[in-house]
Design goal:
About 40% of the residues lie in helices and about 15% in strands. α3 links the parallel β3 and β4. The protein has one domain. The protein is globular and about 40 Å long. The mean pLDDT is about 90. The chain has about 120 residues and is an alpha/beta fold. The chain is built from 4 helices and 4 strands, in the order βαβαβαβα.
Length: about 120
């Protein structure tokens, strides 16, 4: 049984080595995604498909994780382990769903920014 895949954006530095160790321990497949593959759908990225573009787009400026194919229990376990491990914060996290599986990285990133702004606005109110 496949346990799931994590799409990783801007998580390649030494400060993320513990995060990669956690994912490996939980037997999660890690797929780093660079700007040359931002045009590929999340579903294709999760499957390791999609051609890199010769024209690399502008990189998203912060770390982002997309959880693909994890059941609820495993997702909660992963998030709890990340929290307990006191890793550097990764404010942008998403779960691949039927709704967003055909989105590309830029679409997902824009949605996450809108969500973050809406939450910030609610907290100020």
């Amino acid at each position: 049984m496949k346990s799931g895949t994590i799409l990783m954006y801007n998580c390649s530095g030494p400060e993320f080595s513990k995060l990669r160790q956690i994912f490996a321990m939980l037997r999660l497949r890690m797929r780093p995604v660079g700007p040359d593959r931002y045009h590929v759908s999340l579903a294709e990225l999760a499957e390791g498909k999609g051609e890199a573009s010769a024209e690399a787009g502008e990189a998203i400026p912060e770390a982002m994780l997309v959880f693909c194919g994890l059941g609820d229990a495993l997702l909660h376990q992963v998030l709890e382990v990340i929290r307990v491990a006191k890793l550097p914060p990764i404010p942008l996290k998403a779960v691949m769903t039927e709704t967003n599986r055909e989105w590309d990285t830029h679409q997902l990133y824009e949605e996450l920014l809108k969500e973050r702004e809406a939450i910030a606005a609610q907290q100020k109110a």
